[in-house]
Amino acid sequence: MNKNKSYYISTAIAYTSGKPHIGNTYEIVLADAIARFKRLQGYDVYLQTGTDEHGEKIELKAKEVGVTPQQFVDDVATQIKDIWDIMNTSYDRFVRTTDPHHEKVVQHIFKYMYDKGDIYKGQYEGLYCVPCESFWTESQLVDGKCPDCGREVQSRKEEAYFFKLSKYQKQLEEYIETHPEFIQPVARKNEMINNFIKPGLQDLCVSRTSFKWGITVDFDPKHVVYVWLDALTNYITNIGFDVDNTTDEFKYRWPADLHLVGKDIIRFHTLYWPCFLMSLDLPLPKQVFGHPWLIMNDGKMSKSKGNIIYADDLVNEFGVDAVRYYFLHEIPFAADGIFTRELLIDKVNSDLVNILGNLVNRTVSMNYKYFDGIIQNYNVKEDIDDDLINSVIALNNKVSAKMDELKVGEALQEIFDVLRKCNKYIDDTMPWTLAKDESKKERLGTVLYNLLESIRICAVLLNPFLTQTSDKIFEQLNTEIKSWESTLTFGNLEVGKVLAQPVHLFDRIEVER
Ligand code: MSP
Asked: Is the pLDDT of residue 63 over 90?
């Protein structure tokens, strides 16, 4: 394995409290696009995702429906994995926190921190939010309710173990200040420093005695490990870390290159998680990116509002790439994105049908009409070609620059700008007019070649985002030339090969007014 080429990206692990909605699904699609892009660039990518299965909330939910917690999480984890598969995501490992190996290593980690003096036993008194599994102080509440979810909190007192966050405060602050790339987007970094670190980190309660559904603290079995300590360590327990033994895989993959998480849980990933890692003497992940949320017109999705949408329903109706396109193109880099059916339909019609689908269909059809589908290139150049060819060759760099900054929507936009340019090139060169004049036949072959090769290069760069569609384009072009390098120069599509018959990539969606 080539050390320089490893790229470890993770998503948050989803709670197994119920079927995931499009908001939770957005994250794995975003991670998948980044992972596929890195693979295309030649990295040895490892994409880890999975489920967070312990905690009081799950215990209560299982009881409500009359099954054991394990049966409950088995069922929901299957639903989550199915949706990840329906979205055509290329994760390398789907991890579960009820996996016995993970549980065992979490016990080792807890004991290691205890023996080191980083975890100590004390009394916890505070206000607890069950759905968020979080203790709060009076001053942190908003209108007397949980600051994260807005629900009622309960007063609780229990014997508990605490992790000495305070011990690592200075080290953490220094790390964040000297590694500007660590927390992204940068506004989130300031939020963490000003709202949490500067006021002083309180030691963190890392065990519970009020419920059973968790990983038992093996040297004090009344306690279960706090779900966030359990969940966060998934990033290392599943790649071969243990306190007294680290595998080659772990040494190769860790530290992770990117933890992709929602903005609501950036605090756990940039305050608690780094301190846990420091306690274990491990390097910190290179970057934590807190992505914005996908929300509805009337705000957050919630059962009470009845505005929850599931990705599998959308895929059944519109196809997987239409939904992927919406997620990847319409959710901005730093601000929440709104989902509406109308906008989804609008995007399918305007971008996927009009710009991409029509371009491919028109080009392949014309090549059939004028050259029986055989790819021609007589190299009869005109000035107008330069602009198109230069844009196509520059595309790789432009898309890479956007992807380096994780501006996935803008990366897609770059590709669609070039596709638009291709459509304009058809309008400007008017192949149907060239076809009427036998002396222009060679020019016609060149024009169509320029289009086919531009489409091929766009299809290579589109593959991480719209994988199925890109594969369909390669089929129509009858080409295996799909490498990263093949997008850096123009003219790689093989002359003399026969295209496949044109097919429609996307159907226009008619809306009843
Ligand atoms: N189990 C924790 C994460 C532990 S990671 C060690 C959790 N689970 S979650 O199921 O609530 O959320 C999973 C991911 O989905 C989180 O990153 C969260 O921010 C994200 N999202 C949840 N709702 C979302 C939207 N509406 N939009 C975009 N992402 C959203 O938190």
From this structure: yes
